[in-house]
Design a protein that fits this description.
With about 800 residues, chain A is of the alpha+beta class. Chain A has 28 helices and 26 strands. The longest helix of chain A has 22 residues. Chain B has one domain: 3-Layer(aba) Sandwich (Rossmann fold), CATH 3.40.50. In chain B, about 20% of the residues lie in helices and about 25% in strands.
């Protein structure tokens, strides 16, 4: 029952400010980002002035970060979220995709979550990136899963641009944050990608993806169980003692970054602790509680504390079950005396969870955390505490020091608010440049290989533990996607890839969306796995700017169209679903520099026999090289334009669903057929860079060369002048694959593509000479020694970041 | 507990911050040992029923002060020192190796004294430091002592080459005492050294991935029943764990098994370490 304690006198007098400007000033003084309209709306809902605690709770709950108030309608309009591969769609902390059914009749699911930690990483890179990992693994763990992998799509400013020093500091800090947190926790890194672009000078993007594995029967929902209608349920807060860190974090993520405010905003970044998290997560305390609950037959709910802390977590956990909640702030374990009610309620202290458990099971939970696993000994002040009750009435009540500091309809608290933002088309005015052959193709290739966008990522990913847990099949660098075999003794493989190219998004946000989907799927297909679902993280500028909101809508429309066009291989016509995701808006500095529209997609693939997965390194001289996918006049947004000409162009690659589907599904068939020795998709830098990378191998340990005849490369579309055609064939980033195939099987592989209606042709062979040689018929175009390529590509990133 | 020829029981010691206990126990089981995870806050005497011990990888106590040093002062490690003194085998992997070194168990010349350090990685090539700190990569190792010299190497051939991954920030064996490392090598306590795929030990990065003195990857006590090993054998206990493009014999074996999940589920190069232990524990007669 809700308490009968008197309402606190600490109110925010909305009714004292009839004038919007004065109200806005008063809200600003209180440190909340609510608009005057929103503040009045809160007073209307409550039928009185809000308490300060309520003001801060609504401020967090109604922030863009928590409520998706600008984006929700667009996501709903365009993105498919259901399908035969989905165990759970985007309604909770993470989505769940079907991995397999094992011989014991159990269905196994892969839990996937995708978040951004952009603003915090810009101001405090190490802590920002680390807490990004910390938050995403909690999202996965709280579904009842064991966390098996993390991956990071990273976007940084130009390392040689105007803010080079700052960018390099951010890169180093972010990579430190990622490895220090996930290595210590014991979660292997399964890949990620890195892009550099001057548009990220003021706003780096740090996205994080995490995967977990569970049995379908053991899912724990982020909701108070239905049984709470009949028996008493306690709310138990577990983990670090609450402090004032991250106070205002959700709201902080929803504003533009101002240079002057950055120092001030550091207080809004949370403090990471992988050590405490390790004791909670990695086969330790949380798992012990879940096992005990199963044994005792206790039906429980669990949710992690993220944005807006206790308030958001407790209200959503209970509201999702159709209940209310009462939270007693006096019972919350804290690390500082004298914290204000609103701080305890919405601070984003890391490493915390909330359980809803039947009261008879409460002593077991407290014993497991506080005694068996000694949380108070592991971290000063950490423990499990009963902090409230699940209510049958749909109220959200918070008490502190003998007063009621919040008493609202729980629906009003969690439902948020929605806006219908204006979208206005932004025209791209840059035209395609005039093209001519470079003086020296070989030298141009080496410049591309050394450029920060293409150079080997080894200097970064060697910081990441790829081996912990022992499931790795393919790691960062080895192949286009990372692959794990997460069920010991079972043949199932899980593949993950992330992608999103800012240069396409800038020219055409719709193409940015379609290409992100296609490229993430291609990466998964290149190792032989079948895409079964995706997540998205949508990083854009200020949605209140109509052009920025148009970019957002266009990109999401692109994601949706590609998801439908590139449907599930095993269920023709059924879209590849988005099962989770995140929207990060206001990636814009006060000076108005917004990031290029950056929809970033993570694609999950499944393969029923991981032993067939291939890497991208050429294996044996004499094998033939098959190109799947004709080249087109699509150099727009290419690395070639950026590195060699310093332009964007206009002809960004178009995803033709039918062609692309044939290529992706054909490649899966070909690799699964066991006839492919290595495979690499065509992306950054085009066909020539793809070939160079196959010679070098992902770890720069290759020993073979390749010889290719450009005249055998198919070119589709309207005829263009010869120089443009040559450059488009060599450097255009039209989707496609290069496969290494034993001569005896080449006809089979070509037939696989033919059946799928996709163009495929032999363009050359693997050679014992350690060099990459390209001719146009009899005319030599380039011959670059392997060692020179390895030097340029291997050293490019370190050089740019020094 | 030995049950008359029954399964052999190994304790995998777990500290707060350990993160390899599950796969280490699995690798032990695959090699024929019975393995049980042993939580740090249990009674130290409860260790006495186990026949051998593995202190696994991770970041025990968050690497506070220095990697391994806090765990090394835990009561259960005190008990481990005693049991090792009775001759029971103890293997420290990665962070576990750091714990054994900090506890003075390795090289263990004078009881309990810390005689070598596992210093922060410092990768050098041509005399130039090219990188520092944490590094994760597959390495090759050559057996530096006679196989029978150490409990954990008896299943290997003389001068065997194995491939195991490393993943650590502090793995550089170092001593302030001139000549000590050479002495340990001469005495057969340098058990594993980083090498090229063909077995030649070299001091240059990346062959020597962390700048370790004499390219030492694993070191034992004088009796050979305690081994501090920086690379991870549990991450190389199945052939599927070996990278496809790894140069040398193991990469070739991995590629030859392409498409054959049964072969990939068979033993990898690290399995023999645990098999050596299983063999050593086999009741005589």
């Amino acid at each position: 029952m809700p308490t009968g304690l008197p309402l606190t006198s600490r109110l925010f007098p909305v009714d004292r400010y009839p004038d919007d400007q004065a109200l806005a000033a008063a809200l600003g003084k209180e440190g909340v980002g609510l608009t005057p309209f929103e503040a009045r709306r809160i007073a209307t809902l409550l039928e009185r002035n809000p308490t300060l605690t309520e003001l801060h709770i609504f401020n967090a709950e109604w922030s863009e970060h928590c409520s998706y108030k600008s984006s929700r309608a667009t996501l709903k309009e365009f993105l498919p979220t259901e399908g035969p591969t989905v165990i759970q769609g985007p309604q909770e902390d993470a989505g769940i995709l079907l991995l397999c059914e094992t011989a014991d009749g159990d269905r196994w699911g892969i839990v996937i979550a995708h978040e951004s930690h952009n603003h915090p990483s810009q101001v405090l890179p190490t802590e920002g990136a680390a807490t990004g990992i910390g938050g995403i693994v909690r999202d996965v763990d709280c579904m009842g899963a064991h966390v098996i992998a993390a991956a990071d799509p990273l976007r940084f400013g130009d390392p040689r641009g105007e803010q080079a020093d700052r960018t390099r500091w951010i890169v180093a800090g972010v990579v430190d944050g990622i490895w220090q947190y996930s290595n210590a926790l014991g979660v292997p890194n399964l890949g990620g990608d890195v892009a550099f672009d001057a548009g990220y000078d003021d706003n780096c993007l740090v996205n994080v993806v995490a995967l977990g594995i569970l049995r379908e029967s053991e899912i724990i929902h982020s909701a108070a169980p239905a049984r709470a209608a009949r028996e008493h349920y306690d709310l138990i807060l577990v983990g670090k003692p609450t402090d004032d860190s991250g106070f205002g974090g959700a709201a902080f993520a929803s504003v533009t970054l101002d240079e002057e405010d950055q120092a001030f905003n550091r207080g809004a970044v949370q403090v990471p602790d992988p050590f405490l998290k390790n004791v909670l997560l990695m086969h330790k305390a949380n798992e012990a509680v879940r096992e005990a609950a199963r044994e005792a037959g206790a039906v429980v709910g669990m949710k992690d504390l993220g944005a807006a802390g206790i308030a958001c977590c407790s209200s959503e956990l209970c509201a999702s079950g159709g209940f209310g909640a009462e939270v007693r702030l006096d019972d919350v374990h804290v690390s500082l005396d004298g914290l204000l009610s609103e701080v305890i309620a919405v601070a984003e202290t890391q490493e915390r969870y909330l359980w809803a458990v039947p009261r008879w099971f409460t002593p077991t939970v407290l014993r497991i955390y506080n005694e068996d696993w000694e949380l108070p000994e592991i971290y000063e002040g950490a423990r499990a505490s009963v902090i409230g009750d699940v209510l049958t009435e749909p109220r959200y009540v918070v008490t502190h020091h003998g007063e009621t500091v919040c008493d609202a309809s729980i629906e009003d608290v969690t439902a948020g608010i929605a806006y219908d933002r204006e979208a206005r088309r932004r025209e791209w005015t840059e035209a395609e440049p005039e093209l001519r052959d470079p003086d020296d193709y070989g030298a141009a290739l080496l410049r591309l290989l050394a450029s920060p966008g293409i150079a080997s990522r080894e200097p970064l990913y060697r910081f990441y533990d790829t081996e912990v847990q022992g499931h790795a099949v393919l790691r960062s660098g080895e192949a286009d996607a990372g692959v794990l075999a997460p069920l010991p003794g079972e043949p199932w493989g899980v593949a993950l890839s992330v992608d999103g190219n800012p240069r396409y998004g800038r020219i055409d946000p719709y193409a940015g969306g379609t290409n992100a989907v296609a490229e993430a799927m291609r990466n998964v297909a290149a190792v032989g796995a079948t895409p079964v679902g995706m997540t998205d993280c949508l990083n854009f500028g200020n949605p209140e700017v109509p052009e920025a909101f148009w970019e957002f809508r266009e990109a999401v429309r692109g994601l949706g169209d590609a998801a439908r066009g590139l449907w599930l291989r095993d269920y023709p016509g059924r879209p590849t679903p988005f099962v989770s995701g995140n929207v990060s808006l206001y990636n814009q500095s006060a000076a108005g520099n917004a990031v290029a529209p950056s929809p970033i997609v993570a694609c999950l693939g499944v393969i029923d026999d991981y032993s067939r997965c291939v890497t991208l390194q050429l294996k044996t001289p004499g094998h033939l090289l098959v190109l799947a996918g004709a080249r087109r006049d699509e150099l727009g947004g290419s690395a070639w334009y950026e590195v060699e000409l310093g332009v964007h162009g206009a002809n960004v690659p178009r995803v033709d669903a039918e062609v692309e589907r044939g290529l992706i599904h054909g490649t899966i068939d070909a690799v699964a057929g066991g006839q492919v020795r290595s495979c690499h998709d065509i992306s950054n830098g085009g066909l020539l860079v793809t070939l160079a990378e196959m010679c070098m191998g992902g770890w720069g340990q290759g020993t073979c060369g390749a010889k290719v005849d450009l005249d055998r490369v198919a070119f589709a579309g309207e005829p263009v002048e010869p120089a443009r055609e040559r450059l488009a064939k060599l450097f255009g980033e039209t989707g496609g694959f290069v496969l290494e195939v034993e001569p005896a099987y080449v006809e089979d592989v070509l037939a696989v593509y033919r059946e799928r209606g996709a163009a495929a042709m032999v363009i050359g062979e693997v050679t014992a000479e350690a060099s990459l040689e390209v001719t146009a018929g009899a005319k030599p175009l380039l011959a670059v020694p392997l060692e020179a390529m390895q030097r340029a590509w291997g050293g490019g990133l370190s050089e740019a970041l020094q | 507990m030995t049950q008359n020829g029954g399964p052999l029981v190994v304790a995998v010691v777990q500290f707060p911050g350990s993160n390899c206990e599950a796969e280490t126990a699995q690798a032990l089981r695959a090699a024929g040992c019975r393995a049980e995870i042993f939580r740090w806050n249990r009674e130290p005497r409860e260790l006495d029923v186990f026949e051998a011990f593995v202190v696994g990888g991770g970041f025990s106590y968050q690497d506070r002060v220095r990697a391994g040093v806090i765990a090394a002062h835990e009561p259960i490690v005190g008990r481990l020192v005693g049991l090792a003194g009775e001759g029971r085998p103890v293997l420290g992997i990665c962070n576990g190796a750091q714990v054994l070194v900090e506890a003075g168990m390795v090289p263990g010349l004078a009881g309990g004294a810390v005689e070598v350090a596992l210093a922060p990685n410092r990768m050098t090539r041509d005399g130039v430091v090219v990188r520092r700190d944490y590094f994760c990569i597959w390495t090759h190792l050559r057996l530096g002592c006679a196989p029978e010299r150490c409990v954990f190497t008896r299943a290997f051939e003389r001068e065997a080459v194995a491939a195991l991954p490393i993943a650590h920030g502090e793995g550089r064996f170092l001593s302030r005492e001139p000549g000590l490392m050479e002495e340990l090598a001469a005495g057969g306590q340098v058990v594993w050294q980083y090498c090229d795929p063909d077995g030649s030990v070299r001091d240059e990065f990346p062959t020597n991935p962390n700048g370790s003195t004499l390219a030492i990857a694993g070191m034992s006590n004088p009796e050979g029943n305690v081994l501090a090993l920086m690379p991870h054998p549990e991450r190389a206990s199945w052939l599927r764990q070996v990278p496809q493009d790894l140069p040398g014999r193991y990469g070739a074996e991995r590629r030859a098994a392409q498409g054959d999940v049964r072969r990939l589920e068979s033993a990898g190069p690290g399995r023999k370490l645990f098999e050596s232990l299983a063999h050593a524990l086999q009741p005589v007669g």
